[in-house]
Design brief:
The chain is of the alpha+beta class and 128 residues long. It has a domain of 85 residues: Alpha-Beta Complex (Outer Surface Protein A, domain 3), CATH 3.90.930. The chain is 30% helix and 18% strand. The N and C termini lie far apart (58 Å).
């Protein structure tokens, strides 16, 4: 596989990054697959890949780190977690809006029953 250095690399929208303390989890919800990535790659994919081409990203790293980044990019493309596109095409792949507005005033609660008599009628009023 040949990585095109003048193009940008983008994750498919069915793939989400969950950053942890030591590494990042890449979750592919469409294929139900999980992969672990380095946190630095996660940072690049989240903050730089839409704005900068692979070539522009690599300029900020040492030769050794460039090789590692290229290996990760090739892995992502080969396993269909990511794809490449030109700067002109980026607007054709907008980020998915993940905001969700719940119509209820209360979304969840914890009711501690220790040392209290259970009054079923009171819970029915809360639930409605």
């Amino acid at each position: 596989m040949i990585l095109e250095l003048k193009k940008n690399i983008l994750l498919f929208e069915c793939c989400r990054l969950v950053k942890g303390d030591g590494r990042t989890l890449l979750a592919d919800f469409q294929r139900r697959k999980l992969e672990f990535l380095d946190n630095e790659i996660s940072e690049i994919l989240e903050n730089k890949s839409r704005e900068y081409s692979v070539q522009e990203i690599l300029k900020h790293y040492t030769t050794e780190n460039q090789e590692i980044i290229l290996e990760y990019f090739e892995f992502l493309i080969e396993n269909e977690y990511a794809f490449q596109c030109s700067k002109e095409e980026i607007n054709l792949f907008p980020k998915m809006d993940l905001t969700w507005d719940n119509p209820a005033e209360i979304t969840n609660c914890i009711i501690d029953l220790e040392d209290y008599p259970v009054m079923v009628d009171a819970y029915r009023k809360i639930a409605t």
